[in-house]
C-alpha cells in the first residue's frame, strides 16, 4: 500500500467520519476562565471537505484539536467513525490518531536529523510497516506534493515553506480517513498553496473527510462547505460557491 491512488475507505460507510456533538471547551478557572468553544455540532462525511473560518480567537484551532483527540471537550462528545474518543483506552486512541488521522498544524514538528523521506515514513513505521514499504510510500507522497527533490534533505536545511510541505506530505501518507489542517497554506506562496489545496481536495474526492482552518476565502472555495465560527460558536455555514458572501453576512473580523 502506498500514499498514492488507493481508495481510502472508512469502517462505517454512510456514517460521518467525524462528529462533534454539542462539543464545548473551557480553559482555566475563575477570572482566567476562557470559553474557547461552545455547543458545536458538526458532522463531516467521507468524501467531504469542510473549511472552518472565523476571527482570531474564535475557536478554530480548538475545534481541530478536539476533532483529532489532541484535546478533550469539557462538554459534549467527539466521535471518529462512530466511536466516542472519550471512551477509548489511551492505546486505542493513540493507534487511531496514528493510523487514521492526518494532522497539518502550524508547527511543523519535523524530527531534526531525519531526512524528509524518513520523517514522512516515520508514522508508518510506528504503525508496523516495513522500512522499505514505508520508504516507498513516503517517496511517492513527496512526489505527489511536488517535493521529490527534498527527500534526502533534513529539516534544518530547508526553508519554512519546504518544511511545511514535508509536514503536509507526512499528514497525507498512508490510508488516512480524517485529515485535519490548520492553515496549511500559511508559509507557502500562492502557487504552492494551490497545490496543497488540490491534494486535500483529491484526498476528499477519494473518500477522506477533510477539515481545514483557513483565513482565506479563496482557499475555502475548494471546500464543499464552509463553517464560520464566532466566539466559539457556529455562526453560519455555506456551500462551496461563495464563502465570501458568508463572510459579508457574519462579520469577518480580522484574521
Ligand atoms: N490552552 C489554552 N489555555 C487558555 N486559553 C486558551 C488555550 N487555548 C486556547 N485558548 C483560548 O481559547 C480561545 C480560542 O482559541 P483558538 O486558538 O481555538 O482560536 P483560533 O480561532 O484558532 O485563533 P487564531 O485564528 O488566532 O489561531 C482564545 O480566546 C484563546 O486565547
UniProtKB/TrEMBL annotation:
<dbReference type="GO" id="GO:0005524">
    <property type="term" value="F:ATP binding"/>
</dbReference>
<dbReference type="GO" id="GO:0005886">
    <property type="term" value="C:plasma membrane"/>
</dbReference>
<dbReference type="Pfam" id="PF00005">
    <property type="entry name" value="ABC_tran"/>
</dbReference>
<feature type="domain" description="ABC transporter">
    <location>
        <begin position="18"/>
        <end position="252"/>
    </location>
</feature>
<keyword id="KW-0547">Nucleotide-binding</keyword>
<keyword id="KW-0067">ATP-binding</keyword>
<protein>
    <submittedName>
        <fullName>ABC transporter ATP-binding protein</fullName>
    </submittedName>
</protein>
<keyword id="KW-0813">Transport</keyword>
<dbReference type="InterPro" id="IPR003593">
    <property type="entry name" value="AAA+_ATPase"/>
</dbReference>
<dbReference type="InterPro" id="IPR003439">
    <property type="entry name" value="ABC_transporter-like_ATP-bd"/>
</dbReference>
<dbReference type="InterPro" id="IPR017871">
    <property type="entry name" value="ABC_transporter-like_CS"/>
</dbReference>
<dbReference type="GO" id="GO:0022857">
    <property type="term" value="F:transmembrane transporter activity"/>
</dbReference>
<dbReference type="GO" id="GO:0098796">
    <property type="term" value="C:membrane protein complex"/>
</dbReference>
<dbReference type="InterPro" id="IPR015854">
    <property type="entry name" value="ABC_transpr_LolD-like"/>
</dbReference>
<dbReference type="GO" id="GO:0016887">
    <property type="term" value="F:ATP hydrolysis activity"/>
</dbReference>
<dbReference type="InterPro" id="IPR017911">
    <property type="entry name" value="MacB-like_ATP-bd"/>
</dbReference>
<dbReference type="InterPro" id="IPR027417">
    <property type="entry name" value="P-loop_NTPase"/>
</dbReference>
Amino acid at each position: 500500500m502506498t500514499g498514492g491512488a488507493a481508495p481510502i475507505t472508512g469502517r462505517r460507510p454512510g456514517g460521518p467520519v467525524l462528529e462533534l456533538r454539542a462539543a464545548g471547551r473551557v480553559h482555566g478557572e475563575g477570572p482566567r476562565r476562557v470559553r474557547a468553544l461552545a455547543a458545536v455540532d458538526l458532522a463531516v462525511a467521507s468524501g467531504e471537505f469542510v473549511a472552518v473560518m472565523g476571527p482570531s480567537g474564535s475557536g478554530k484551532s480548538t475545534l481541530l484539536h478536539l476533532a483529532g483527540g489532541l484535546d478533550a471537550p469539557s462538554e459534549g462528545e467527539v466521535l471518529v467513525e462512530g466511536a466516542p474518543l472519550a471512551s477509548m483506552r489511551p492505546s486505542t486512541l493513540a493507534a487511531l490518531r496514528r493510523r487514521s488521522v492526518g494532522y497539518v498544524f502550524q508547527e511543523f514538528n519535523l524530527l531534526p536529523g531525519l531526512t524528509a523521506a524518513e520523517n514522512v515514513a516515520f508514522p508508518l513505521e510506528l504503525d508496523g510497516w516495513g522500512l522499505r514499504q514505508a520508504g516507498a510510500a513516503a517517496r511517492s507522497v513527496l512526489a505527489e506534493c511536488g517535493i521529490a527533490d527534498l527527500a534526502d534533505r533534513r529539516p534544518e536545511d530547508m526553508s519554512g515553506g519546504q518544511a511545511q510541505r514535508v509536514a503536509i506530505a507526512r499528514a497525507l501518507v498512508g490510508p488516512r480517513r480524517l485529515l485535519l489542517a490548520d492553515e496549511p497554506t500559511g508559509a507557502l506562496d500562492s502557487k504552492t498553496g494551490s497545490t496543497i489545496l488540490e491534494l486535500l481536495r483529491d484526498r476528499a474526492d477519494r473518500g477522506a473527510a477533510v477539515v481545514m482552518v483557513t483565513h482565506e476565502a479563496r482557499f475555502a472555495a475548494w471546500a464543499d462547505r464552509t463553517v464560520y465560527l464566532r466566539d466559539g460558536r457556529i455562526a453560519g455555514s455555506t456551500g462551496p460557491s461563495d464563502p465570501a458572501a458568508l463572510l459579508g453576512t457574519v462579520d469577518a473580523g480580522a484574521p
